[in-house]
Amino acid sequence: MLFAQRWLMLAVVSSALLLIVVDMTVLYTALPALTRDLQASATEKLWIINAYQLVAAGLLLPMGVLGDRYGHRRLFLAGLVVFGLASLLAAFSPSPAWLISARVCLAVGAAMMMPATLALIRTGFSDEQERTLAIGIWAAVSGGGMALGPVIGGVILEYFWWGAVFLVNVPVVVVALVMAVRYVPVSAPDWSRPFDLLASAQIMVGLIAAIMALKEACGGHPDYVLALSELTVAVVAILLFLRHQRAQQEPMIDFRLFRSAPFANGFVIALVTTSAIVGVELVTTQRLQLVLGFSPLQAGLYILPLPLSALVAGPLAGVLAPRIGNRRSVSAAMILSLMAALALALSISAPMWWQLLLLALLGLGIGFAMTVASTAMMFSVVPEKAGMAASLEEVSYELGAAFGIALLGSLMTAVYTSAFQLPAALTVPAAHAADSIDAALMVARGLPAGDAGLLIQAAGAAFDQAAQLVFWTAAVLVLVCLVWVLIADRRQSQVNSDQQPDQ
Fold it and tell me: What digits encode the pLDDT tens for the residues 154-175?
């Protein structure tokens, strides 16, 4: 592939990737507005966000196989079309159920495109140095775009209604589609790769049921019998999937990939850090608007240091990591992320400049770690496994986002409900206000000024407690990831030393 063509191809796939990852988080700043307009409940609100990640996570593996079978370019173009049409459906949703369904369609289009983005980069860049830089840019767009979502949502909502956050996708899709036809090379299909419909259904049911169980167990009014039932379905489906995979000559997942320490570590890093960053963003953008009274634009600008530092970290990691080593790079980045997350948990009432600095440090650390993880995963596989490796990597991101929203979002709701204390001086019943801070603000609109002030103050205090616990949980997730990386590095060093011949 010519020099100019491969970099233009990178621009095309990066623009599509930006749409995909932005849609993971763009609704954070739009949630208060769409919750009000669509009269969505707390459960519906979480499903509006999580339907995208859940379906995408369940479809990424089968779509990666389809990309290998039919050609990644073909699936990429089809995914662009589906994503554009689904964006139109989402923009004009008249109800929460309609919007959730549109988000499912968006996830289908995203799942068709995402494995192709990395696979095309992996096969289009033959030079190792260029490939490292290209993957660094890909990782920067992935991590930074995810963090940039609330900013884009805030800017759009300053001038338009909430549906515009989806409508803006359409012109980008059209331009990307035209450029992709010209600059994305045709990839040779591998008709020998079978498409296993049964395995696809099993893994999708397993992942979705697992997240549903987590959401139910950590929600504000948990039904533990239902959560246990969903967990049972998840375990059975995943066990059936694993059993089915072992019996196949061409499995959907080649579990031998995880024997590679760089690949396994990269998967864990991407999963955990994505969970932490989406949880922090979700809570921060909600608190800024619902407790502190920021506009969507102000909330988006407030969180801007996080995506900007993550965007800078991607190319920086692509340049520095090969010089100082992946292990040292990841360890340093995770330590920085941990310190920033701990400081955020302790600084919920700190001055704005301090919180902005901590968000920047968190984005820098996580962005650097995610880039190194992505590069290590893709470099540890042969070109023939590029589609599968790309699918697994993106599963880690999507599953991490779904896990983060399910765990931290549900935890936020549960802590709010338990911490909320209805003011004794309130002269009218407002028990519904304990369901969520959105519900409390809706109730407050119908109360006299004095009662409304009391209710808003109580709801804000309860939400602050919930936000602080979410920050602590995010810090714990980063700590667990850091411990995992250190233990894995020690084991790998021991294996390497044992393999050296005695002198």
Answer: 788 888 888 888 888 888 888 8
Q: How far is CA 242 from CA 61, 210, 479, in A?
A: 14, 15, 29
**Of 252, 256, 230, nearest in space to 241 by CA:** 252
Lookup: tokens for 463: 């939400």
CA gap 448, 199 in Å, rounded: 57
Q: Alpha helix locations (H) across 184-256?
A: 197-217, 224-246
Question: Of 321, 322, 361, 355, nearest to 340 (Cα)?
Answer: 361
Q: Model-level pTM?
A: 0.69
Break the chain down into helix, strand, coil percent, rounded to 5. Answer: 85, 0, 15
Spatial separation of the C-alpha atoms in residues 20 and 142, rounded to whole Å: 9
DSSP letters, 185-205, are PPPPP-TTS---HHHHHHHHH
The single-letter DSSP state of residue 424 is T
Helix (H, G, I), strand (E, B) or coil at 431: helix
User: Domain 3-184+248-420+459-499 belongs to what topology?
Assistant: Growth Hormone; Chain: A; (1.20.1250)
At residue 436, does pLDDT exceed 80? no
pLDDT band at residue 503, thresholds of 50, 70 and 90?
A: very low
Mean pLDDT (whole number) for 18-42: 78
d(CA 281, CA 262): 28
Q: Where are the domains of the chain?
A: 3-184+248-420+459-499, 197-247
Q: Where are the alpha helices (DSSP H) in 346-409?
A: 352-379, 386-404
Structural contact between residues 116 and 13, judged by C-beta atoms closer than 8 angstroms:
yes
Is residue 188 exposed (0-12), middle (13-18) or buried (19+ Cβ within 10 Å)? Answer: exposed
CB 20 within 8 A of CB 144: no
Residue 194: the pLDDT is 64
Neighbours of 247 (CB within 10 A): 7
Structure tokens at 173: 């899709």
Of the chain, the end-to-end C-alpha distance in Å amounts to 47
Which two tokens mark 95?
């109800």
Q: How far apart are CA 86 and CA 167, in angstroms?
A: 10
